[in-house]
């Protein structure tokens, strides 16, 4: 019996996928539920499992865009499983004896110079990255003088021995969709960015004192994401317009906080969602961040786990970014950018002190978020991060960290 395997629907609104990689070859025997291919949708990379055991015949090539419901392979379920390992079919080719050919007499490379370069000229040319052979000498017998070397200018049309190769590769469907969404956000929103800075000293002190105990009890690290997520949740409740979206001529506001977190995965940027972050503790946020990050990096993230989200947090600081203007993740109206933490001189009570400072940026859709709300939101985030014990922990650290 020949079974036709069709592309299942990865999620709502997805009409086609792209065959990223076949994990089996044409004619292989596959087991039921064995992963036979990786397919890219515009939201995630998913594995395609075999629906039955048998011999497989591929009907699509890697890189093909295939509609949901289309046949990608046939499985002959009547085929018997081969016993043991099949003998290798590779033919062993004997190397033909190498014929020794007489080496051609060396010919002198044609150059502008009929003589050599002076020591001073060689030093100058070496600093400029220019071969003496391409410089026309004006000295005796074509010798390249110091003046010739000084006047020599590197030519874009003169190869100097460096590589000038190029390569071309097809962008994945996920990468193309990300590109489309970024351009869409720039073209369809009135996007502005406001900035502020956060003194991370209080959070550093908390993590230094409790991170080992926290990890020993909960199995996850006490990172920065839990502080930022809970600070964002508080600010979203204070400024609900930032937790809203435009739908035609209407504005949709949410009474829950689904926080999208940008994660760098093997196929590009992915944005899984922490659902109902307003109900999570520090432990809950850190556990969910770890779970989603691992699934994204291992290519196991599902479309449902990346669908939705009412606000996004992105952390360019892990790559060393000092400051950036993050692009809104449509149809959301706001995104908070975290950056690297650098010790900077700041004025504290009239004195200059060195503090760990992070610059933060809020990009927002000015169509529904006014300047007063955007600035107020970012100030609220700053206040919570600089006074986490009182504002985020209700003055009870151990209870908040569940220690």
Summarize the structure in words.
The chain has 403 residues and is α+β, with helices and mostly antiparallel strands. The chain folds into three domains: 2-76, OB fold (Dihydrolipoamide Acetyltransferase, E2P); 119-151, E3-binding domain (Dihydrolipoamide Transferase, Irregular), CATH 4.10.320; 191-400, 2-Layer Sandwich (Chloramphenicol Acetyltransferase), CATH 3.30.559.10. The protein has ten helices and 19 strands. It has helices at 119-128, 146-151, 173-188, 201-218, 224-238, 282-297, 303-306, 371-386, 388-391, 397-400; strands spanning 2-6, 16-22, 29-30, 35-40, 45-49, 54-58, 65-67, 71-76, 191-199, 244-247, 250-253, 259-261, 263-265, 268-270, 273-274, 311-315, 334-338, 341-348, 351-365. Helix 5 crosses helix 6 and helix 5 (224-238) packs across helix 8. The two termini are 60 Å apart. Residues 86-114 have low confidence and may be disordered.
Assigned CATH architecture of the largest domain: 2-Layer Sandwich
Count the beta strands. Answer: 19
The residue fraction in helices comes out at: 25-40%
Tally of DSSP helical segments: 10
Overall geometric form: extended
Main sheet summary = 7 strands, mixed
Keywords:
extended; OB fold (Dihydrolipoamide Acetyltransferase, E2P); Dihydrolipoamide Transferase; 403 residues; 4-stranded antiparallel sheet; Chloramphenicol Acetyltransferase
Layout: helices, strands, pairs:
Elements: E1 2-6, E2 16-22, E3 29-30, E4 35-40, E5 45-49, E6 54-58, E7 65-67, E8 71-76, H1 119-128, H2 146-151, H3 173-188, E9 191-199, H4 201-218, H5 224-238, E10 244-247, E11 250-253, E12 259-261, E13 263-265, E14 268-270, E15 273-274, H6 282-297, H7 303-306, E16 311-315, E17 334-338, E18 341-348, E19 351-365, H8 371-386, H9 388-391, H10 397-400
Parallel strand pairs: 12-16, 16-17
Antiparallel strand pairs: 1-8, 2-4, 2-7, 3-6, 4-5, 6-8, 9-19, 10-11, 12-15, 13-14, 17-19, 18-19
Helix pairs in contact: 5-6, 5-8
């Amino acid at each position: 019996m020949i079974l036709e395997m069709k592309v299942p629907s990865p999620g709502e609104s997805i009409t086609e996928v792209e065959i990223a990689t076949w994990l089996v070859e044409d004619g292989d025997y596959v087991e039921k539920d064995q992963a036979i291919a990786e397919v890219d949708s515009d939201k995630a990379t998913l594995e395609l499992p075999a629906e039955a055991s048998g011999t497989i015949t591929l009907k699509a090539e890697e890189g093909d865009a295939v509609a949901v419901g289309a046949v990608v392979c046939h499985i002959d379920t009547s085929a018997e499983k081969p016993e043991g390992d099949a003998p290798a079919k590779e033919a062993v080719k004997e190397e033909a004896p190498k014929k020794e050919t007489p080496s051609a007499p060396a010919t002198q490379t044609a150059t502008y110079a009929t003589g050599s370069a002076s020591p001073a000229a060689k030093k100058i040319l070496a600093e400029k990255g220019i071969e003496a052979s391409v410089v026309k000498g004006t000295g005796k017998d074509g010798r390249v003088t110091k003046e010739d070397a000084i006047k020599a200018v590197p030519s874009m049309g003169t190869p100097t021995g460096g590589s000038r190769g190029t390569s071309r590769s097809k962008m994945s469907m996920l990468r193309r969709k990300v590109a489309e969404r970024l351009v869409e956000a720039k073209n369809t929103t009135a996007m502005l960015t406001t900035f502020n800075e956060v003194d991370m000293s209080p959070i550093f002190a908390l993590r230094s004192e409790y991170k080992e105990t926290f990890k020993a009890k909960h199995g996850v690290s006490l990172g920065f994401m839990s502080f930022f997520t809970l600070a964002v949740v508080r600010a979203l409740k204070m400024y609900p317009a930032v937790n809203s979206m435009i739908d035609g001529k209407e504005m949709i506001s949410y009474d829950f906080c689904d926080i999208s977190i940008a994660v760098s995965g093997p196929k590009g940027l992915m944005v899984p969602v922490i659902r109902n972050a307003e109900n999570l503790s520090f432990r809950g946020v850190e556990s969910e961040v770890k779970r989603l990050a691992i699934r994204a990096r291992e290519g196991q993230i599902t479309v449902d786990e990346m669908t939705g989200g009412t606000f996004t947090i992105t952390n360019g600081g892990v790559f060393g970014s000092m400051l950036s203007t993050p692009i809104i993740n449509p149809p959301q109206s706001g995104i908070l950018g975290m950056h690297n933490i650098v010790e900077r001189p700041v004025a504290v009570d009239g004195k200059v002190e060195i503090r760990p400072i992070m610059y933060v940026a809020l990009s927002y859709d000015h169509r529904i978020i006014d300047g007063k709300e955007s600035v107020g939101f970012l100030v609220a985030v700053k206040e919570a991060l600089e006074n986490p014990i009182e504002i985020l922990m209700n003055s009870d650290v151990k209870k908040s960290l569940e220690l």
